[in-house]
């Protein structure tokens, strides 16, 4: 079976009502990364960090997958589809995608602040005083700026093995995630879905699909299934 790797970002969930980061009105216009999404912020004011991610979790719980998430599930009829997502929501899983790798963590999980192996499903708010089984404060299961991205090696292998790559809804501004493109063997087709092409870096072997994910992805999937 031909392999398609999908690199998704906040834009694929935008039509589900989840805020993106760098668009006009995006989260990083309202909040400073240094104040909510770094180990330093956690050390200085954990309450503020918890509040920010509690809000993100509530937004995800209210959201539903959109036609872009569902179309990627249909793609599995004919292709081996590996999704590599920068998103911390669970909309790919809820739509029914079989293989989803989260690069930046998962908002519906909490983890121990002392032992990264202690991870728990978590749907409510995380509050100061919520502890892991060893007695340490719980934090969101999110990769913060300045932290390692443990899933990168696995993700790089997946891109290397892919016959085609589909990039959807990401500004390609955050490293190391954006460097995954470099693992794509030269000459293999890359599809890009993003309504704002001008803001993105140049990409070789590119098939650009204009429009929002909710329309462009179902159209692309239809085309690929009909090949
Ligand atoms: P960004 O917010 O940086 O970029 C979202 C991209 O989606 C932009 O390029 C938009 O043009 C595009 N977009 C908006 N609406 C869309 C739609 N309906 N369909 C398709 N594309 C659309 O989000 P990411 O690239 O995912 O990390 O950001 C990467 C990382 O930065 C996130 O994982 C997060 C953030 O800081 C952490 O928090 C560690």
Write the layout of secondary structure elements.
Blueprint lengths: L2 E6 L2 H4 L12 H4 L2 H4 L2 H6 L1 H17 L4 H8 L5 E6 L5 H5 L4 E3 L2 E8 L6 E3 L16 E5 L9 H9 L3 E5 L21 E4 L12 E4 L3 H14 L1
Parallel strand pairs: 1-2, 1-7, 2-3, 7-8, 8-9
Antiparallel strand pairs: 4-5, 4-6
Helix pairs in contact: 6-9
2'-O-acetyl adenosine-5-diphosphoribose binds next to helix 1.
* Silhouette: globular
Please mark out the parts with pLDDT under 50 across 5 or more consecutive residues, or reply none: none
Bound molecules: 2'-O-acetyl adenosine-5-diphosphoribose
Helix content: 25-40%
CATH level 1 class label of the largest domain: Alpha Beta
Number of helices: 9
Strand content: 15-25%
Report the mean per-residue pLDDT as an integer: 97
Gyration radius over CA: 18 Å
The neighbouring-strand order within the major sheet is 3-2-1-7-8-9
Distance between the termini: 14 Å
CATH architecture of the largest domain: 3-Layer(aba) Sandwich
Corresponding CATH superfamily of the largest domain: TPP-binding domain
The count of domains is 2
Largest sheet: 6 strands, parallel
Strands, total number: 9
The ordered string of helix (H) and strand (E) elements is EHHHHHHEHEEEEHEEEH
């Amino acid at each position: 079976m031909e392999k398609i790797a999908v690199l998704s970002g906040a834009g694929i969930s935008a039509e589900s009502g989840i805020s993106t980061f760098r668009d006009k009105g995006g989260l990083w216009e309202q909040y400073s990364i240094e104040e909510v999404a770094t180990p330093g912020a956690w050390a200085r004011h954990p309450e503020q960090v918890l509040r920010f991610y509690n809000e993100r979790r509530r937004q995800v719980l209210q959201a539903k997958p959109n036609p872009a998430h569902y179309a990627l599930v249909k793609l599995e009829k004919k292709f081996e589809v590996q999704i590599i997502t920068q998103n911390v929501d669970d909309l790919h899983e809820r739509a029914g995608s079989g293989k989803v790798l989260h690069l930046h963590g998962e908002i519906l999980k909490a983890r121990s602040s002392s032992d990264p192996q202690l991870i728990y499903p978590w749907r409510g708010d995380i509050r100061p005083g919520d502890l892991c089984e060893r007695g340490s404060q719980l934090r969101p299961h999110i990769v913060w700026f300045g932290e390692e991205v443990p899933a990168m090696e696995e993700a790089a292998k997946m891109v290397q093995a892919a016959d085609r790559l589909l990039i959807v809804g990401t500004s390609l501004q955050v490293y190391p995630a954006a460097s995954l493109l470099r693992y794509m063997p030269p000459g293999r087709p890359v599809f890009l879905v993003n309504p704002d092409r001008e803001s993105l870096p140049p990409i070789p072997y590119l098939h650009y699909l204009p429009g929002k994910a909710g329309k462009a992805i179902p159209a692309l999937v239809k085309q690929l299934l009909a090949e």
